[in-house]
Every structure is written in C-alpha cells, then in structure tokens.
Amino acid sequence: MADPLRLGIAGLGTVGTGIVRIVQSHAALLERRAGRPIVISAVSARSRTKNRPVDLSDYAWEDDPVALARRADVDVFVEVMGGSEGPAKAATEAAIASGKDVVTANKALLAHHGQALAEAAEAKGHVIRFEAAVAGGIPVIKALTEGLAGNEIRRVMGVMNGTCNYILTRMESAGLPYETVFEEARQLGYLEADPNLDVGGVDAGHKLSLLAAIAFGTKVSFDAVELEGIGRISIDDIRRAADMGYKIKLLGVAQMTGRGLEQSMSPCLVPADSPLGQLQGGTNMVVLEGDSVGQIVMRGAGAGEGPTASAILGDVIDIARGTRLSTFGQPAATLAEPVAAKATSPAPHYLRMELADKPGALAKVATVLGDEGISIDRMRQYGHADTSAPVLIVTHKCTREAIAHALSRLPATGVIVGEPVAIRIENV
Ligand SMILES: NC(=O)c1ccc[n+]([C@@H]2O[C@H](COP(=O)([O-])OP(=O)(O)OC[C@H]3O[C@@H](n4cnc5c(N)ncnc54)[C@H](OP(=O)(O)O)[C@@H]3O)[C@@H](O)[C@H]2O)c1
C-alpha cells in the first residue's frame, strides 16, 4: 500500500472541524481518489479543552502551531487559523522551512505575503495551495491555473463576499435599511469580528488580488485594489436601481489594460436578469473571461464548513496524487511587477439625485454632464415632494473621472438637494 499523506491541521474552528469531518467520514473515498490514505497526524488550536464537534482523540495535540508545522510526522501543513500576521504567518513560514507542503484557506495571509511565501516554498520544491481562500467551495483557482491555462485572461469578475451579498439582497427583499440588516447579519454571526473586512470590501479585495495574480501573471498587489464598501448603499438606491432593471452588487473587477492592471472592489449595478444580478443571499459567483474560451460563470457557496473544507480536500488530494503546481500558476520568481492603473475604463453610470422643484433644473444638470462629455442614455423623474424630486440617470460609457468632476460641479448649479449618488454599471 502507498504511504499515507499525513496532515497537520492548525485551527479547529469552522473550517478545521469540516476538514476533520471529511477525512474521517470519507476515508475510503479519499484513498481511492488520491491513490493513498489521507490521515491526520496532529492538530492545534488555541484551547485544548474547548468542546469540539469532532473526535480528535486519535491525533497528537500541539499548543503551538509552529511546533505542529515542524513535526516530522506531518507532510502537509493545513493552515486554517486565519490572520495575515502572527501565528498563521509564523507557522506557514516554519512549515516551508521544514520542507512541508502547505494548504491554506487564508486570503489575508496570501494577499499580504503570498509572493514571499510562494518564492520560499518554490525555492525548496514545495507547494502552497489555496483553493479555499477564494470563493469558498467554488474551484476557481483550479479553473484559472489548470482548465484555462491556454487562455489569455481578459477579465476576472466576481461577487466574493457572501455577507455583503446577503445584506444587499436582504435589504431589497425585506425593504429594510442598511443599518437594520447590518445588525441582523451581526446577530446571525455572518460578520467578521472586524466588520470592515466584510462590508468595507477588504476580504473580497484580498480574494480579487489573488485571482488577478494568477490571471495576469503578476505579483499579488492587494494595496493597489481600489476598495469601496457597501456602507453608503441606501434602500432607495436598491429600489431605484431595480426600477431601471439593475441590482446592486459588491463586485470585483480585475483586468489588464494598456495602462496597467486595474483592480477594483466596489458597489456596481449589474443587469437584474444577468447571472450576477440573480445571485441571492450568501452565494458567490466568479466570472472568468478568456480569449479562446469566452465567458465562464461559476456559482456556489462562498463560505461555510462544508464548502470550505471541500476546497481544502481538493488541494490535499492533488498533493497526494503528486500534482505540483506553482502557487500562482507560474513560478513565483517569474511573476511580473504589476503597474497599477486606476480603474478608469469607461463604463455607463447610474446617477441618483434630488432636484429642486425649479424651472430649468434638469437642463442645468444636463448641461454640466454634457460639458464633461457625459451623454445620457436613459432618465427617469419621480413624482415630487413639495420642494424636490428624485431623478435617475443612466449615462452612456464615461470615465469615473468625468463622473467625479461632474458631481463636484453639480452643487454650484443651485438645483441639487443633498448629495448625488453615482454607481458604475457593469454590463455582464
Ligand atoms: N469560515 C468560512 O466559511 C471560511 C471560508 C473561507 C475561508 N476561511 C478562512 O479559513 C480560516 C479559518 O476560518 P474559520 O472560520 O474556521 O475560523 P474560526 O472558526 O474562527 O477558527 C479559527 C481556529 O484557529 C484557532 N486559532 C486561532 N488563533 C490561534 C493561535 N494563535 N494558535 C492556535 N490556534 C489558533 C482557533 O482556536 P480555538 O478554537 O481554540 O479558539 C480556532 O480553532 C481563515 O483564514 C478564514 O478567512 C473561512
């Protein structure tokens, strides 16, 4: 019988527990597929005495994940603790230095240190796999690095934070304001301890930066992702966008342009009848566009015990089979330094503003837009209150700069009440 592949699992929370459950319940199936048994040698977590929903009695215990990473009876170090620094980083570095392969679900760690870790692992002939770090159970890393390896990737897009999608779709279906649904999400345990990681777009930005590295052969550059969260999206925007045939999503877009690599994670309008527009609740969706294959849409659970552990096991089985891929689809030392470009590719925009009930108000707005080279595709004016009326405008393609400039000039017209809102439209 072939030698077993021995795992050391650091972290026994949602994901770690899920991995133990699959290894225990699917032992025969994993062995058939991997060609050798997959076993757990040792585990680690903060508290040894905590009650856990799986039986750990057969495994050695390490209080220190670094010690776990160095154990002689561990072939693959599975890092599912989380955090970009601290024990996750120290133990991953220790695993690589001790000649282990690494499987991780930790997008924060890789978004900040992926290049250095990949170079260190590859210099020693070891692999780091991270399917679980991006879009949970959706095998998007495999699709990009393997299935689509023959394509020049044109664009990568995705809704990759289930919590944000839950909040936006719940606001719409229940007609509730952002603050109420945010609180609901907190009560349900959907939010990270630091909610800004979710609603500020940071977590989804981490994931986008990892996909962009693979797609465009560039070093991970999370700092260059233009981030905007969902905090300013109002129930009014959601309703008005729906009237115009759109849904609002926290959408990541990465593309290589003549000016450099554009990466943005921000609220966007997408057509309501598009696959992205129809995405409900905590589900994730990734859209990949290659020059030969065209567009591919992948949809599934972006988080949770089962889906995330499923992705980890996919990576583990690859290692057991002897598949040894570079972390980012090509040797880390050959990844190019990306030139960061502002996401200025022209796109249609949705504008919402409150116009004072004055003669010629609309004409003044149209003049400012026209001066900035922004032409109007569609417009809708709503019945007004005593002094003002909401107006929605969908523009033809224009740059973010032109929109920003127009918005800065609108208050001087004297016909705008409150702050106008502009959201980019992605016609996908
Ligand atoms: N949950 C998901 O659906 C999901 C999806 C995709 C990716 N991920 C990623 O997977 C990783 C784990 O997430 P999770 O949801 O499973 O987290 P979690 O439920 O909070 O579990 C974290 C585990 O790590 C252990 N831990 C934390 N600090 C430690 C330390 N200093 N030393 C040893 N052990 C330590 C904790 O120990 P105690 O149990 O003793 O406190 C706990 O068992 C994160 O990188 C996360 O971003 C999670």
Give a short overview.
With 428 residues, the protein is of the alpha/beta class.
**CATH topology assignment of the largest domain:** Dihydrodipicolinate Reductase, domain 2
Low-confidence parts, pLDDT < 50 over ≥5 residues? none
Beta strands, count: 16
Mind describing the biggest β-sheet?
Answer: 10 strands, mixed
Whole-number mean pLDDT? 95
Shape: elongated
- Any ligands, ions or cofactors bound here, and which? NADP nicotinamide-adenine-dinucleotide phosphate
Share of helical residues: 25-40%
Q: What is the count of DSSP helices, taking H or I runs of 4+ residues?
A: 14
> CATH first level of the largest domain: which class?
Alpha Beta
Structure report:
The model has no long low-confidence stretch (mean pLDDT 95). The longest helix has 17 residues, at 107-123. The chain contains 14 helices and 16 strands. The chain is elongated and about 85 Å long. The strands form two sheets. Strands 7, 8, 9, 10, 11, 12, 13, 14, 15 and 16 form a ten-stranded mixed β-sheet that branches. It has three domains: 5-133, 3-Layer(aba) Sandwich (Rossmann fold), CATH 3.40.50; 142-300, Dihydrodipicolinate Reductase, domain 2, CATH 3.30.360; 349-425, ACT domain (Alpha-Beta Plaits, 2-Layer Sandwich), CATH 3.30.70. The protein has 428 residues and is α/β, with parallel strands linked by helices. The chain binds NADP nicotinamide-adenine-dinucleotide phosphate. NADP nicotinamide-adenine-dinucleotide phosphate binds at residues 11-16, 44-47, 50, 65, 80-82, 87, 105-106, 132-133, 136, 303-304, 308.
